[in-house]
Design goal:
Elements: H1 6-30, H2 40-44, E1 72-75, E2 81-84
Antiparallel strand pairs: 1-2
Length: about 100
């Protein structure tokens, strides 16, 4: 049976906390790239930067994330790449409420 002293416990806890924090920063950094229309996934979902469907755009879609009002926001459907707030894809779902 292993006995961890207080100093070792604090080192391990501190390292874990730093790792989790840096991991979260890395995930947010990944969502900074705007989506490319050449991407096969984008083509599969028929994504466009400007919606032609009245009342349906990324900014009022269930899946959009990020700061309300931003011109480009992350979307989990596209591996957290940034989509245009005025964009659209065939997976669009109305936000509840």
């Amino acid at each position: 049976m292993s006995n961890i002293n207080r100093r070792d416990f604090l080192k391990i806890s501190g390292s874990s906390l730093i790792g989790l924090t840096l991991g979260g920063v890395a995930l947010r950094a990944n969502a900074q790239e705007q989506i490319s229309l050449d991407d096969p996934l984008v083509q599969q979902f028929q994504y466009v930067h400007e919606s032609a469907v009245e009342g349906e755009k990324c900014s009022n879609c269930l899946f959009i994330q990020g700061e309300e009002g931003a011109e480009w926001r992350p979307c989990p459907l596209f591996q957290n790449k940034l989509v245009a707030a005025n964009g659209w894809c065939k997976a669009w779902q109305k936000k509840p409420g």
